[in-house]
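[Meeting: bench + compute handoff]

Bench side (C.D.) handed over the final construct sequence. Compute side (W.E.) agreed to return the predicted structure before the next meeting so the bench team could plan truncations. Sequence as handed over:
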Amino acid sequence: MKKNSLQFNELRELLLELGFAEADEEKKSVRFVHPATETFLLFHVYGPKEIVNDRDMLVVRRQLVENGLIEASALDGLLQKASA
């Protein structure tokens, strides 16, 4: 995976399109839950234009691909478009 340049607002949009619901966790973190697969992702509070750190993107990739929410190649294509 290339160096990440995905902004949090772009990741948020992708997760919502994939069926995740968003919930603030006491202003300390942001949680996304995919009810059908019981997949959840927890992030520190990012600013909308802040670049998502590489560790968080590795977790996102693993969870989305392993839970069958997106193909690895499709995710890579979306990330490549976002960084262009």
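W.E. noted at the follow-up: The chain has a mean pLDDT of 89. C.D. will use this when planning the next construct.
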